[in-house]
Amino acid sequence: ALSGLYAGGHAGAGTTIALFELERWPAADIRAFQTCYRTAVPVRVIKVDGGATGKPDVEPTLDIETALALAPQASLVVYSAPLASYGRSTIDEYTQIVDLREAQVLSTSYVLCERDVSQLVPGLIASENTIFQQAAAEGITVFAAAGDSGSEACSRTNPARKELSVNDPASQPFVTSVGGTSLTALGPPPAEHVWNDRSKAHGAGGGGISGVWRMPSWQAGRGGISRYSSGR
Q: What is the pTM of this model?
């Protein structure tokens, strides 16, 4: 899908990507990845509130390696804050990324269903929205993972919860939600469809209708209203 960009010489040069992370990662894995794929992107780390703690996790490793692979000429800045203080770390880290105005792209794969966020950290969703509006005004594109629990985002933390739900910050009006696809043929052009592995408990791209935000005017087109929504 990116062949046309690469053929046109677009491999991320001149762009800075900021990654939002809440866990540590093994630096040796990143070095091995770059050696294998012959990239040489400097990975700069900025610690927020002391940086992430605990054992290294696969989530930030995948985030970093994906960015390195898809945009091998971009500059990469990885922001890191403690997962244990989710609410404070989230606001402090997003604020620092946006206030520094260094990156043109901000990407996060850390999401939680809207209802859980509202209950666990009241006010967090509204505070995030203020930051994302600032990002939009500064020309920073914000991407967030759609999640991998299909249309039942809250089942990620409690399998018994089957209500329709979506993840924050993927559902934020000033954020682009990114879901997974399954490639069935390399092409060109590649053939793909929405990732939906029914054999796994958490094996489908997230998506749906927010229970917090009214529909922005730019989403009022075809496909934005269904029998599950109020039309607003």
A: 0.91
